[in-house]
Amino acid sequence: MSETPDANDDFIARYTTLMLAVWSDAEAERRLAADPRAEALAAGLPVLPNATVALDRSEADGLFTRQKLVDDWTADPRRHVLHVPAAPMIDLDELDERQLELIAGGVSDVNVVIVACVVVA
């Protein structure tokens, strides 16, 4: 994955779209648990050839920043870490359709919201 801001924005948009799908669809969650690599590829995340995707469903001890998500994904070319806590920090039902679309689309100002959703205190 390129380290350009545009590439990181695209990565975060795809990452958060995957998170939202898992949090709102039991079938997506089942697929992710069964084969994280296949689901990451299906979501358009940049999975390197021969790399594994390690799924981390644990509660975070602090915020996952955009940079943390990118760094954990790219730190080891043989192993990408995909953080998808078991539940979001906020109730997704509290967001309206426009907010969900903005999050899924990767709008920068809203990515802070979804990164906060990743944190389970």
Textual characterization of the structure:
The chain has a two-stranded parallel sheet with strand order 1-2. The termini are far apart. With 121 residues, it is mainly alpha-helical. The radius of gyration is 13 Å and the shape is globular. Helix 4 links the parallel strand 1 and strand 2. It has six helices and two strands. It has helices at 5-24, 26-34, 36-42, 66-74, 97-105, 108-118; strands at 52-56, 79-83. 22% of the residues are buried. Helix 1 packs across helix 2 and helix 2 (26-34) packs across helix 3 (36-42). It has one domain.
Comma- or semicolon-separated keywords:
mainly alpha; 121 residues; 6 helices
As residue ranges, the low-confidence spans are 107-121
Number of separate strands: 2
Helical region count? 6
The percent range for helix content is: 40-55%
Subunit organisation of the chains: single chain
Instruction: Assign an overall shape.
Output: globular
- Could you tell me the radius of gyration in angstroms? 13 Å
Side-by-side strand order of the widest sheet? 1-2
**Major sheet details:** 2 strands, parallel
Beta-strand percent range: 5-15%
Q: Give the ordered list of helices and strands.
A: HHHEHEHH
Overall pLDDT, averaged?
Answer: 79
> Roughly how many Å apart are the termini?
30 Å
Number of domains: 1
Which structural category fits the helices and strands?
mainly alpha
